[in-house]
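Hi C.,

You asked whether I'd gotten around to modeling the 388-residue construct. I have! Everything is below, sequence then structure, no commentary in between.
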Amino acid sequence: MVGPVSRWWLKLSISSGLVSAVRPASRSVLVAALVACSTADLTPASAPPTSSGGPAAAPTEDQDPGTVPPIDGGSEPEAGSTPLAMSSGVTIQVLPSDSGDALLAAIRGAKKSVHMTMYLLTNDDVVTALGDLKKAGKDVKVVLNKTFPPNGGDNQPKYTALKNKGVQVTWAPSGYTFTHAKTIVIDGEKALIMTMNLTESSATTNREYIATDTDPADVAELEKIFAADLSNQAVRLPSKLVISPADANTLHSARQQIKALIDSAKTSLDVEAQSLSDDTIVDAIVSAHQSKVDVHVVVDGDTVSTPSQKDAVAKLKEHGVPVRSLKSPDMHAKAIVVDEARTFIGSQNMTPTALDQNREIGVLTDAKSEATKVRKVITSDFAKGAAL
């Protein structure tokens, strides 16, 4: 079942996430980025109402996407099968690895356009690269999240800096509890769908994944979503991408797609998530374990003490699911690998807020090489993690 947010008219805003060169001294930014993993609500006009008729409340500073009260309670999707439509032409980069050099080079190498939506942008090199592209006559547009919980981050300085460089930048629509997606579309030819924010430290200290998607249908859809969000307009599109939140016209909700992916596991299931608290997703993981699937779950060691995460971990442990927490590298990933054959990468934490209320973007791919790559990382992180 899809909650009241699903009935909002859909203003699909896709956040673009750019990785950039990182300065190790910026450790404080990392703390802000971790807190900022749940965005506050945004303030353009014409925001869709909540079920009570008023705007959604911003989280407090100690809330992550797993601790904000859900609209729909993380209820089970409606009966019926959810086809697992996969995107072709997807490659995945694991971070930390190159301090974000490859992604920064991709941005700088744009020949025509860069369209970005970003939850948290604090990286000077990214702002400089965007300004240089604009100065060179490229089509550069940016949608930024506006309001954060206390101590959760601030995009105003980079918003102003981009404006001063002539870049068209706007605040994301206010129809979502958080605009938490992180995507970049370059030259209308490839989309970068990421787990990471554009901070000074994310690319060097965090476990993150960047999916580069060259599937023409995906890229075209992301461009339409970006254009709608930039102008604060509604857009409804059928999609094989994993998009949150769903509305009444959405073919499949993100919860349905992720649950269907987990339910398809026959031999192995590897899950890596900063926050895991959605009842449907937790139950699906338990069910896979009970079906003799080889299950491994890695969660963030810094947020494992939040009430919702503690409840989820307790349920997994109660049913014998192997689960561990990781602190180094800092666990900010959102990834699932099934049967070492199918992979999910996206901005969605496995929480009711992320699945029902936030603007989030993810991708599913059946590229075997990428599944093998990501599973190897999750297996290593699980081995290094602390038993819960």
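If it helps when you're writing up: The radius of gyration is 19 Å.

Thanks,
B.
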